[in-house]
Write a structure and sequence with these properties.
This protein is mostly helical and 87 residues long. The protein has a single domain, classed as ACP-like (Non-ribosomal Peptide Synthetase Peptidyl Carrier Protein, Chain A). It has four helices and no strands. Helix 1 packs across helix 4. The protein is globular, with a radius of gyration of 12 Å. The relative contact order is 0.18.
């Protein structure tokens, strides 16, 4: 799976996991902040998303600092998943 496909999959996964039916996938840019941007995630949503990503992709995000960096945007989230799967 390439990065563009991963970002597309992440968009779908986020909408399903966080019940964001009112969000159009096309509206989500890979560089848009997940906190304070269109999605404006809160800490509970971030935790839900991290747990789903760990299960879906077989990765482990081990610290709150790592979570914060990974969840900066869709792009950083995709990069984190790619890096974790390469470990």
């Amino acid at each position: 799976m390439n990065r563009a496909e991963l970002i597309s999959q992440l968009k779908t996964l986020m909408i399903e996991t966080l019940h964001l039916e009112d969000v159009d996938l096309a509206d989500l840019s890979e560089n848009e902040p997940l906190f304070g941007g269109t999605l404006d995630l809160d800490s509970i949503e971030a935790l839900e998303l991290i747990l789903t990503l760990e299960k879906e992709f077989g990765i482990k995000i081990s610290s709150s600092e790592e979570s914060k960096q990974a969840l900066a945007s869709l792009g950083t989230l995709a990069d984190t998943i790619i890096a974790k799967k390469a470990e």
